[in-house]
Each structure stands twice: as C-alpha cells, then as structure tokens.
Amino acid sequence: MNLREKYGQWGIILGATEGVGKAFCEKIASGGMNVVMVGRREEMLKELGKEISDKYGVEHLVIKADFADSRSVDKIFEQTRELDMGFMSYVACFHTFGKLQDTPWEKHEQMINVNVITFLKCFYHYMGIFSKQDRGAVINVASLTGISSSPYNAQYGAGKSYILKLTEAVACEAAKTNVDVEVITLGTTITPSLLKNLPGGPAGEAVMKSALTPEECVNEAFENLGKTFSVIAGEHNKKNVQDWKANHTADEYITYMGSFYEK
Ligand SMILES: NC(=O)c1ccc[n+]([C@@H]2O[C@H](COP(=O)([O-])OP(=O)(O)OC[C@H]3O[C@@H](n4cnc5c(N)ncnc54)[C@H](OP(=O)(O)O)[C@@H]3O)[C@@H](O)[C@H]2O)c1
C-alpha cells in the first residue's frame, strides 16, 4: 500500500530504536513515508535512520526524548510542526516487576508517564492535526496484560489497558472520517526488551512457543488498519483470549497471568 499517498508524507514512531518500533519504521518507510524516529538512544536511532533512508529512499529525522518526562515531547511537536504529518504510533513502554507496594514510588511515576501521560499527550496532539486535515492514521500498541490484568507487573498492565480502551474509543469517534485509528494487542513478541525480561524455565519456554516477530505484528496491524478498531496479534493469542473468556473465570485468568512472574 502506498501509505504516503493515503496518509501523508511523514509518520512518527514514538519508541523507534528497536523491536516493534523499528518494525513500524521499516513498514511506513516501505510504504513511501518519511520517518520521524524518537527514542532515548540517539546513536542507534541515527544508524537505523541511515539504514532506512538508504534502503527505502525516504527521509528520516531523529529526535532524542525520554518519555518518563512528559514535557520531553514538546520539542517533538515543535520539530514536526512544519511537516506534512500523516501517521503516528506510540510504541514505547516501561515496566518493573514485583508487588505494587514493593516498587519504589519513582518507578511508578516513570511508568505512569511513559505508559499513560506521555502517550495521551502524543495521541491528543497528532489526532488534533489528523482530524483537522481529515487525513492520517494512528496505530497504538497494547498488550494481553491489558486484557487480563497483570499481577507482579500490575501498573504496566493497567497502563496497557488504558491504551487499549482509549484507542478503541477514539477509533470509533474517528470512524466516519478519513482518519484511521487502531490498537493492536500484542502477546509475546520477540524483541530485545522481551529477551532481557523473559522468565526462566518452563514459564519462559511456554511463552516463547507462541511468540511472534515484530514484523508479523506490524504487518497484521496494517492489514487491519481502517477495517477494525482493535486487533489481537496472531491466531494463537486470539484463540487464547477467546478460550479464557469462554471457559474460565476472570480470577483464573488473572492468576494464570500472575503465575509467569510470581516468585
Ligand atoms: N515484547 C513483547 O513481548 C510485548 C508483549 C506485549 C506488548 N508489547 C508492547 O509492544 C511495545 C513494544 O515492545 P518492545 O518489547 O519492543 O518494547 P521496548 O523495547 O521496551 O520499547 C520499544 C522502544 O521504545 C523506546 N523507549 C522505551 N522507553 C522509552 C522512553 N522512556 N522514552 C523514549 N523511548 C523509549 C526504546 O528505545 P530507547 O531505549 O532508545 O529509548 C525502544 O526502541 C510496547 O508498547 C509493549 O508494551 C510487547
């Protein structure tokens, strides 16, 4: 699909350096869009930007920002003000593991900023632009933890639930316009961040069995863009959610999700 013709010249990936964010950068560049790439590791982003420009013949702009401080995105809005923006995806996330009260308060503040406040600020900003020009698309990234709840990773799961529910509602609000909005819910996805946090032993092996690549997830998101408000990535994850909802109580589902990280 020529994304540039449909949505505009530039797209922004918030959390672009590796994993799912990197796959989003490649996808929109392959659809002809120039890419604004945001993350904390500027050198890695510059290398990736060069690779993408060489491979797809598009422009790129790297902006260094840490979403743990929601004011960090003001400079992104300023630097993209004159660009013909047509796509946004908020990919970055932050999580810690442990019981709610055992997690230092500063970590909770960082989590709520990365997963909720900065996300909302970016979504609000670019939806304003897309809605005014009646053209554009947003794909936000949620997690199965946002469907089930996520013991020992509780605030992260709640944040993902926020992204899921907010994006679904806004997708419906935009349905009669030329702005396509969608949320993709991911299960286990093979990213550098997952590989660092994977539980050991049988729990880790079990989650890897159904793991998808970032490219598979991003392709599925784009296949469904403009067709549905919300998609769960991969047949295995879809079937699992249906099965849990049909055959188990909510308590059983939550306990199962907690079993991965219970010490
Ligand atoms: N991997 C999975 O199994 C899985 C499962 C379910 C849902 N998801 C969702 O999929 C998305 C991507 O997952 P992932 O594993 O690729 O995540 P990730 O590596 O933790 O984050 C993706 C990108 O976001 C950037 N980022 C992280 N924190 C940031 C911050 N404070 N400020 C600015 N940029 C930041 C990182 O680059 P820098 O380090 O350079 O900033 C990285 O490139 C997340 O929304 C996650 O919730 C993933």
List keywords for this structure.
VLCFA-Steroid_DH; seven-stranded parallel sheet; alpha/beta; SDR_fam; 263 residues; NAD(P)-bd_dom_sf; Rossmann fold; binds NADP nicotinamide-adenine-dinucleotide phosphate; single chain
Provide an overview of this structure.
This protein is α/β, with parallel strands linked by helices and 263 residues long. The chain has a single domain (3-259), classed as NAD(P)-binding Rossmann-like Domain (Rossmann fold). It contains 12 helices and 7 strands. It has helices spanning 3-7, 19-30, 42-56, 74-79, 105-133, 145-148, 154-173, 192-197, 201-209, 214-224, 235-247, 250-259; strands at residues 10-14, 34-39, 60-64, 85-90, 136-143, 179-186, 230-232. A 7-stranded parallel β-sheet has the order 3-2-1-4-5-6-7, sandwiched between helices. Helix 2 packs across helix 10 and helix 5 runs parallel beside helix 7. The longest helix is centred in the middle third of the chain and has 29 residues, at 105-133. The radius of gyration is 18 Å and the shape is globular. It starts with a helix and ends with a helix. The mean pLDDT is 96. It binds NADP nicotinamide-adenine-dinucleotide phosphate. NADP nicotinamide-adenine-dinucleotide phosphate is lined by residues 15-21, 39-41, 65-68, 91-94, 114, 141, 143, 160, 186, 188-189, 191, 193-194. Belongs to the short-chain dehydrogenases/reductases (SDR) family. It comes from Clostridium hominis. This is SDR family NAD(P)-dependent oxidoreductase. InterPro entries: NAD(P)-bd_dom_sf, SDR_fam, VLCFA-Steroid_DH.
